[in-house]
Specification:
The structure is a single chain. A hairpin with a 7-residue loop joins strand 8 and strand 9. The strands form two sheets. The protein has a seven-stranded mixed β-sheet, sandwiched between helices. The longest helix has about 35 residues. The chain has about 450 residues and is α/β, with parallel strands linked by helices. About 40% of the residues lie in helices and about 10% in strands. Bound molecules: pyridoxal-5'-phosphate. Pyridoxal-5'-phosphate (PLP) binds next to helix 6.
Amino acid sequence: MDRTSGLDRAHRHAVGWLASLAKRQVPPRLTTEEMLARLDPHLQDGPTDPAAVVDELAAACEPGLTAMPGGRFFGFVIGGSHPAALAVDWLVSAWDQNAGLRMLTPAHSAVEDVAEAWVVDLLGLPTGSAVGFVTGGTMANFTCLAAGRDEVLRRAGWDVAERGLVGSPGVRVLVGAERHDTIDLSLRYLGLGAPEPVAADDQGRVEAAALAAALDAGDGRPTIVCLQAGNVHSGAFDPFDEAVTAAHDAGAWVHVDGAFGLFAGASPRHRHLMAGAERADSWATDAHKTLNVPYDCGLAIVRDRAALRAAMGMHGDYLIHDAAGEPFDKVPEISRRGRAFPVWAVLRALGRDGVADLVDGFCDHAAAFAEGIAAIDGAEVLNDVVFTQVCASFGDDDHRTRAVVEAMLAEGTAWTTGSRWHDRAVLRVSVSNWSTTVDDVAHSLAALRRAAGR
Ligand SMILES: *Cc1c(COP(=O)(O)O)cnc(C)c1O
């Protein structure tokens, strides 16, 4: 069988798709049900030529695709794919390296070591911190919190790997009232149950005094504190300096969920938002959001390498180990794709200044959105726009805000997300794509004015 005829077709379809982004409407034209009706439900008995498979799938899928990699997708927090990262991601599939073991895939292992050091340095985190290349922010939170759980229990004389959690002293987990839901999800996966929320202020930042009081009222159990760099609604950053000091004084492990916000640390203009966060014990971020690599790539960063390896490492003696530790010691998976290659690629393509410009560009576009929205009759920007997120209401009546969200989707110029924040319907804008231009923002604001004028 020809190994590459399918690749040639895939290349052609990919180039066509990317070229269509500038003009096409952002939402998909068909629903999932309508897409199902286009697909042959019957799995045939015989083979199909790879090139024909690619053509069939591309033709069927085109109307069901969302223009997420384009410059006018501002929904949820969704990054784009930088051209260098996208191209290298194709190589990842062609090279098809199982990235778990050093002796098996020296190229990936070495690139991962280099990318690890670059990321830690770029974000202003402690030199020597370990980075696990996981699937996304959720697994990054999970991985970091696993290291934290095991370490705080180890300090209390309890070995989770040996004894499990039943009968342990338990772990108290304090979180800001506006932490991301995936913190709760990670804690559930880890058998830690629901966390204790601590009051947050009007921007969603944890209140340092309330956190200190909650820590003081502790019952002596091992404790983890989860802080946040980048609230999905406001973009706000927790007051790290005070919060980390209070948590460490109480002997707690401090974890920072910075799925998109951690990259503020890479920008001289925005790194003040992260002041004090570098003293935490672990940090979760996504490479597939702000850093603009393709799915799926998250980074679990842990100061104490041994704590991460103790939590995630597998000690089966049938596998070959060496002194540096194996890449699979830092992540939940054994087999995985070469996720460090696209991370290396985007960092090599942008350089230190380019990453700072990327982050600053997102923030500038967000500020332009805020200014443009505030000028719309009856509209109100609800957050201090300190980073990449804008949260707006189009009047005291939730119906009008919801109608604007719906009109935006129906019109298709841009994708903005409807949500609820502080008990109000809101329209949320997240700028996270390298290809967004000043024109994209202007056209999207014009669409918002039309939607609000209806
Ligand atoms: C997106 C996000 C997550 C989850 O990340 P995934 O990559 O979707 O798993 C966690 N925390 C915050 C603050 C996020 O924005």
